[in-house]
Design goal:
Layout (H helix, E strand, L loop, with lengths): L1 E6 L6 H4 L2 H8 L4 E6 L12 E2 L9 E2 L1 H14 L4 E11 L2 H8 L3 E6 L7 H7 L2 E4 L9 H12 L16 H4 L12 E2 L2 E2 L9 H19 L1 H4 L6 H9 L3 H11 L4
Parallel strand pairs: 1-2, 1-6, 5-6, 5-7
Antiparallel strand pairs: 3-4, 8-9
Bound molecules: ligand 9D3.
Length: 256
């Protein structure tokens, strides 16, 4: 996978892409990330990348010519890439979108700034507009980093077995159970007894129940997409959680 990131703030990307799993994935050649300064493609004397909106109004709009030249250049190096614009108007990015991107040869990501980009660039080049959530950022750079991070860890070979993507929270639609490590007693707060018991069935059951309780409390929207085995349903019935799950599913229409 090759990511091409087009931005007027290339410095934004230096340290986040040079640490941890992404750094290793780049070093091992499993992903390539190239950051391009859109300003390098601005032809006028002042290297302007923005201008006032036709029709008037607040703020500035990113000019089409430098963006078009930057996209064409990125396409030359990443010919089979899909072109994504990070924008508050986009479709919400989620784990299934990340998994789809992990199968692609390349992504060209345009980071918007100011009030956005000239619509003709979207019409001509952009395959997909993506938002990372319902909050206001100052530009698309952090959103692009979120996409690189979420997609990179799904590329085969990037994660070791120990943190394999297959048991992620969102692969089961359940939140992770609480976790503890040494010491057993931290300033009087102790670790749940069952985790010290060595009884692996009891531990698995405790963790499953804790995951479900947490998901019901914090993310009831995920419950509709969770699927339980017959044995799990029996456990949830014994814990008095199954009726709660059916109630949540009924309310949300049982989708997922
Ligand atoms: C309505 C006036 N504008 C803000 C004062 C709208 C606006 C323009 C540009 C709001 C935010 C931005 C910059 N944000 C992004 O480029 C962005 C973003 C976001 O803000 N939230 C979630 N995902 C994304 S992806 C790109």
């Amino acid at each position: 996978m090759r990511f091409d990131i087009l931005t007027i703030f290339p410095e934004f990307f230096s340290s986040p892409l040079d640490e941890g799993i992404i750094r290793r994935a780049r070093q091992d050649g499993m992903v390539e990330v190239a950051v391009t300064n859109i300003r390098d493609f601005a032809l006028d004397r002042h290297a302007m990348t923005d201008d006032r909106p036709f029709g008037g109004g607040e703020g500035m709009v990113m000019k089409p010519e430098p963006l078009a030249a930057a996209i064409e250049s990125a396409r030359g190096k990443n010919p089979r890439a899909r072109v994504v614009l990070l924008s508050p108007q986009g479709k919400k990015f989620d784990q299934s979108e990340a998994a789809g991107f992990a199968d692609l040869d390349g992504l060209i990501m345009i980071c918007g700034r100011y009030e956005g980009i000239d619509e003709r660039i979207i019409d001509r080049y952009v395959d997909l507009e993506l938002s990372i959530g319902d909050y206001v950022l100052t530009g698309g750079e952090l959103a692009a980093l979120v996409v690189v991070d979420a997609v990179t860890r799904l590329i085969p070979g990037v994660l070791g077995c120990s943190d394999s993507a297959s048991c992620d929270t969102f692969s089961r639609n359940l939140l992770k159970h609480p976790q503890y490590t040494r010491p057993r007693d931290f300033e009087g707060d102790t670790v749940p007894e069952v985790l010290l018991s060595g009884d692996h069935d009891a531990i698995a059951r405790w963790r499953f129940i804790a995951s479900v309780r947490r998901t019901i409390a914090r993310r009831p929207d995920l419950i509709s997409g969770a699927r339980f085995s017959g044995a799990e349903i029996k456990i949830l019935q014994a814990e008095g959680l199954w009726s709660e799950i059916e109630r949540i599913r009924g309310k949300s229409g049982g989708g997922g």
